Amino acid sequence: MILRDAKIFFTACVGVLLLLIGLDNISDYGTNFAGVQHILSMDTIPPESPFAWRAIHSGLMHHLTYDFIMAAEIGSGAACILGAIRLLRARTEDASVFNAAKHFAILGLVGALGLYFLGFMIVGGEWFQMWRSNGWNMQEPAFRFIGTVGLILLFVAQPDSDQG
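The structure assignment produced for this chain is given below.
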């Protein structure tokens, strides 16, 4: 039972974190929006970079990108919370019922992992060369999040059994 409790707890923790991040971004829109602007505009890397052609200077695209990030955070967080609730309800059921209840938990965890791995490490980090930015390199915080959520996803996805 302790492993099931741990899976519920960690899924709920990720859900709370994602909802908090998303709501913080809405409440203090300008702080992280500035980072999105700098990364997409590529204005903090040397202008002679051979990748400067990738820059996006459209204010509308900056806002749409940031809005997508916030929607992904809130959507993934909500899926994790819903997943934790469903796991809690199935906590004392047979393993097959508990395993079947993991759908939303895994959906939320994969959503979070996808946002930070694809969005921050691949698109932001490599496509927009975020790693070259002294003030707006978010790869290290994103990597910590990827590692944490990735481990939790692997743990939650492990099939439960009725044995021991």
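Interim note for the steering committee: The chain has one domain: 2-157. The mean pLDDT is 96.
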